[in-house]
Design goal:
alpha/beta, 6-stranded mixed sheet, binds pyridoxal-5'-phosphate, 394 residues, 18% strand, 16 helices
């Protein structure tokens, strides 16, 4: 049978792999050799499971959105990752990797962050487990996302502003990789999404797969069957989407719809629509689609949502798009905002801007009344209030 899961060489179809500098080879190889046995180890699973329940607050509810369903003429369930500790799905991954790092004997954690959400999740996990934490963040982002910088510092992390390049996520990632090269013995690099060299995309997908595991059980309770007709999630690097679809990847009864950030429009030059515009290339150690110019230089992406403006996409998702297993829809800034206001007004849930992109595909699909749709609300909108208020006053 055809599978959309990773193969034994670390590829999803022609995407993935580990294209890394020689000096990182040992670190990545050690991780590759150990991650599966640690993730499957009984005592790891017990500790991780206990923390997901008592600390993160899982299982997150699968909420039947009655009024939203009425609006779109189908049955819509929202998977409420916004209710997790720290306000999004990212804690599932950060906590899992921090525990894994501890089991590999590492005492120092590094991470990259763009908007600061992954930095806060990582700093939180490190505070909980008593690990040293250094977070690399572009200087531009440090200035734009001041509250998250203060949160990380309050949690005990050291935030290092990166002044190379455009001083944003891509540059912070390069700096984190450089740090890892210099401190291979005691340091572990927690990547925040299903990106980077193998085994990261698979490891992050497995840590987030708690989402689809819960969806299966919760749908069974609500509907008497354990699969939906549609799964919908937004894609930056791809981790909340990977978690949402993980247990359904090879289930052809389930349609997968991914929302990427159209920005001001796919052809406007200000966009993060990697699948529509990207060409095959290599970014941060993986072969995938990348937004790049004719010389292969990576172009700066744009989206109203800081969590979606990554110039690449996870290799799993690149393969799902290339093989047409998933339908990928670009949702522009204004469409995401409209979807956010609708959800807020008729369900009383203020979503993160990233999640609003997932909601923004709902008016673009022709549903039948009996269709069961599960849409992941990846995070809450507190961090985006300034943007929402500005849009409201326009
Ligand atoms: C970071 C973030 C995303 C995008 O990251 P993925 O790895 O694609 O999930 C989406 N939603 C929220 C709330 C985020 O913080």
């Amino acid at each position: 049978m055809r599978t959309y899961q990773i193969d034994e060489n670390g590829y999803y179809g022609e995407f993935g792999g580990a294209y890394i500098p020689e000096i990182l080879h040992r670190c990545v190889e050690t991780l590759r050799e150990n991650y599966l046995s640690i993730l499957e180890d009984d005592s790891f699973r017990r500790e991780y499971g206990r923390l997901l329940k008592d600390y993160v607050g899982r299982p997150s509810p699968l909420y039947f959105a009655r009024r939203l369903s009425g609006h779109y003429g189908c049955k819509i369930y929202l998977k409420r990752e916004d209710l997790n500790h720290t306000g999004a799905h990212k804690i599932n991954n950060a906590l899992g990797q921090a525990l894994l790092a501890q089991r590999m004997g590492k005492t120092r954690i590094i991470a990259e962050t763009g908007a600061g959400q992954h930095g806060v999740a990582t700093a939180t996990a490190c505070a909980l487990l008593g690990l040293e934490c250094v977070v690399y963040m572009g200087k531009t982002d440090v200035e734009r996302q001041h509250i998250n910088v203060q949160k990380m510092e309050m949690l005990g992390a050291r935030v290092v502003p990166v002044t190379s390049g455009n001083m944003t996520l891509k540059d912070a990632t390069n700096e984190a990789i450089r740090d890892w090269c210099c401190h291979p013995a005691d340091t572990y690099y927690i990547i925040g999404s299903t990106v980077g060299p193998h085994p990261y995309p698979d490891m992050v997908a497995k840590l987030q797969s708690i989402i689809s595991k819960e969806i299966r059980e919760q749908l069974k309770e609500h509907e008497g069957r354990d699969y939906p007709d549609y799964l919908i999630a937004c894609v930056g690097g791809g981790s909340n989407a990977a978690g949402t679809i993980y247990h359904y990847l090879d289930d052809s009864r389930v349609k997968i719809v991914l929302a990427e950030a159209g920005g001001l429009g796919v052809l406007s030059g200000k966009t993060a629509a990697t699948i529509q515009l990207g060409k095959k290339g290599i970014i941060h150690g993986a072969r995938t689609y990348v937004i790049q110019n004719e010389d292969g230089q990576i172009e700066e992406p744009y989206s109203i949502s800081a969590g979606l403006d990554y110039p690449g996409i996870g290799p799993m998702h690149a393969n799902l798009a290339a093989t047409h297993r998933a339908q990928v829809i670009a949702v522009n800034d204004d469409e995401a905002l409209e979807a956010a206001f609708l959800l807020t007004r008729i369900e009383g849930i203020i979503p993160a801007l990233e999640s609003s992109h997932a909601l923004g595909v709902l008016p673009k699909i022709q549903f039948r009344p009996e269709d069961i749709v599960v849409l992941t609300v990846s995070g809450r909108g507190d961090k985006d209030m300034e943007t929402y208020i500005k849009a409201m006053n326009q």
